[in-house]
Design brief:
0% of the residues lie in helices and 51% in strands. By secondary structure, it is mainly beta. The protein binds calcium ion.
């Protein structure tokens, strides 16, 4: 089956953190360095944005109690509603030297989020300060627990359908990791490498950024500076499908649409450069012949 790629919105610079809300058929995502959060309405085709001030938002995920959980630099905040734009503190995760990066909610409603060194978005793989990031979970009461402290740029966690495995990328060493996942305790163990993007077996893929898991249990990994999303088999670590895009810095992806058969893909340009024609676009890929799952919402 052949896919079709289209640009559905071109309204941001550094797109990241896509989350599909099935009840509204809207895709929420962020524009990291302009501090905007975005809502793309797939029914009307409208892409609207909301500025949150000096936020460095990296995620926007709906809450089960209304509104959204959002990051502001190293803090977790609650956005009361899209219409109000009102933000209140929820949890302080880390000192201000780092910023929070990619995050997702597990099936029990906990938020998992990685931190990283506060760079300018111009990823220098060889010179980026190593092991300054961590992986945390933020519980529904705002309590914070650190799980890993040797991460450089954590990205793209997602879970197997039975919640027995958590997948998580550390972009700079190019590692796609799997962990045993205990959903009751909110614990991870037994880290192993699923795929190493630095190996010659996966050439020209850039670094692994955001990621989502399909209903077949395969990983769709955004390849920053690789201009691709690859479908990985976590059992073998092999790339089993490649979808190419007309810009190099592909940041993240998630499934959406009525049947979760459309893949939404965010992108960016280097911040110091003029925008290239497609960089910053929100892409929609149809006709992949696979489907994703409903994304979890925050219980806190
Ligand atoms: Ca990312």
């Amino acid at each position: 089956m052949s896919e079709k790629i289209e640009v559905v919105a071109k309204n941001c610079n550094f797109g990241e953190g896509p989350h599909w809300e099935d009840t509204t058929q809207c895709l929420y995502y962020v524009d990291v360095y302009t501090n905007d959060v975005h809502r793309y309405n797939a029914v009307t085709g409208e892409d609207s944005r909301l500025n949150l001030g000096e936020s460095m938002a990296s995620i926007i995920i709906p809450r089960q109690n209304g509104g959204f959980v959002v990051t502001q630099k190293s803090d977790i905040v609650i956005l009361d509603s899209w219409d109000s734009g009102k933000v209140t503190s929820f949890a302080k995760v880390e000192a201000d030297a780092n910023i929070l990066n990619d995050g997702k909610v597990d099936a029990s409603g906990r938020l998992w989020i990685g931190s990283c060194f506060f760079g300018d978005g111009d990823l220098d793989v060889d010179n980026w300060p190593k092991y300054q990031g961590s992986l945390y979970n933020v519980d529904t009461d705002g309590s914070v627990k650190k799980h890993l402290s040797d991460i450089t740029i954590g990205n793209g966690m997602d879970w197997s359908d039975d919640n027995s495995v958590m997948y998580f990328n550390d972009s700079i060493p190019g590692q796609v990791y799997a962990f045993d996942f205990d959903i009751t305790a909110g614990a991870i163990s037994n880290r192993r490498t699923v795929a190493n993007f630095r190996s010659t077996e996966i050439p020209d893929k850039g670094v692994p950024d955001g990621m989502t898991v399909d209903t077949d249990g395969k990983l769709w990994v955004a390849c920053f500076e690789g201009g691709k999303v690859v479908r990985l088999d976590p059992e073998t670590g092999k790339v089993i499908r490649t979808v190419k895009f007309p810009c190099e810095r592909i940041t993240s992806c998630c499934f959406g649409g009525k049947d979760f058969t459309d893949l939404y893909v965010t992108s960016t340009a280097p911040p110091q450069l003029e925008k290239t024609p497609f960089a910053g676009s929100l892409f929609k890929v149809t006709g992949l012949g696979v489907r994703g799952r409903k994304a979890n919402t925050f219980a806190g």
